[in-house]
Design brief:
Transferase(Phosphotransferase), domain 1, six-stranded mixed beta sheet, 33% helix
Length: 316
């Protein structure tokens, strides 16, 4: 792993792509060399995520921190950087995923040796979120992309990587070659590290079903979280008639609607289902209903929804 010094000149000549928010503690830049920088700022003013989530941090981290006995701001900065550095340095173990996951290419440090962030290649293409309207009417392409995504997730899960914000479709890029690539490496949960990721969309704190030990064992999410997210993404892409996210395309509204859909459950034959799957209760959709039941059966491990995707695509 290459190590670089972050200078003021690099930041001054880079374009700020996204600032910190209540759910993120990093700033993202595009450098003159067309590289992506993810930097953890120092000051409280630059880290609204820390201020917003202080109480939440008592029981769960907001962005892969080690759980702390202290909620001192400097401790949070220190521990978050320590953990991100471990994730960056360990990323070389996952080089076989380079074609499907955007991995760090360099670790960045201050002049005094303090780790502050990392660099990665800029992935060309558009996110599933940005191409959702086109995919809703191109079921063949959507099906192929979903099967690719399922394979990427399966392989990552088998290596101990949980993609906790898989339902954030902005982090799933479709390259010009029509291949899937995931870009949010620093938010992945890597089970060999003592880290915990609070998914902004599918979290134990927001969603009753994910408090179950099947999905969350008190320290880590399990791969079942990813498999439930895959099924959610499947319906999002393959059925434009569902109108899952309405007509308002603002990020805030989209997240609100998705949270609302997932948090409202219906009770059916002893199982709790998100209401966005209510159409599966139609007897005509028995195969799909059975696939969904397997995913949300709290007594069994989820299945990766390859067959459900193929079955769904046949009827479109």
């Amino acid at each position: 792993m290459e190590k670089k010094i972050l200078t003021d000149e690099i930041l001054y000549t880079s374009e700020l792509l996204s600032d910190t928010s209540e759910h993120s503690n990093t700033k993202t830049y595009l450098t003159e060399e067309n590289k992506i920088l993810k930097i953890i700022p120092d000051s409280k003013e630059q880290n609204p995520a820390f201020q917003f989530n202080m109480e939440q941090l008592r029981i769960m981290d907001a962005n892969c921190y080690l759980l702390l006995g202290s909620l001192d701001f400097d401790d949070l900065i220190l521990k978050s950087r320590e953990l991100m550095e471990k994730k960056v340095l360990i990323s070389s173990d996952f080089k076989d995923f380079e074609s499907s996951i955007s991995l760090p290419t360099a670790a960045y440090y201050k002049k005094d040796g303090t780790f502050i962030g990392y660099e990665q290649e800029k992935v060309e293409g558009k996110s599933i979120y940005d191409q959702r309207k086109d995919l809703a009417v191109n079921h063949k392409l959507a099906t192929d992309l979903l099967l690719q995504l399922t394979n990427v997730v399966r392989n990552a899960n088998e290596r101990g990587i949980i993609i906790t914000d898989l339902s954030n479709l902005s982090n799933i890029i479709i390259t010009p070659e029509l291949k899937i690539k995931l870009i949010d490496y620093d938010d992945f949960q890597i089970n060999r590290l003592l880290s915990l990721k609070n998914s902004a969309i599918l979290s134990p704190s927001k969603n009753p079903i994910f408090k179950n030990k099947k999905y969350f064992d008190g320290k880590f999410y399990t791969r079942n979280l990813n498999q439930a997210s895959l099924l959610n993404t499947m319906y999002y892409l393959l059925d434009d008639e569902l109108g899952l996210l309405g007509t308002d395309t603002s990020t805030q509204y989209q997240q609100h609607v998705l949270n609302d859909r997932i948090n409202n459950f219906i009770y059916y034959e002893g199982y709790d289902y998100p209401d966005l799957f209510s159409e599966l209760l139609d007897p005509k959709n028995k195969a799909l209903k059975d696939a969904t039941k397997r995913v949300f059966d709290l007594e069994k491990e989820n299945v990766y929804p390859d067959e459900a995707i193929k079955e769904y695509a046949k009827r479109l």
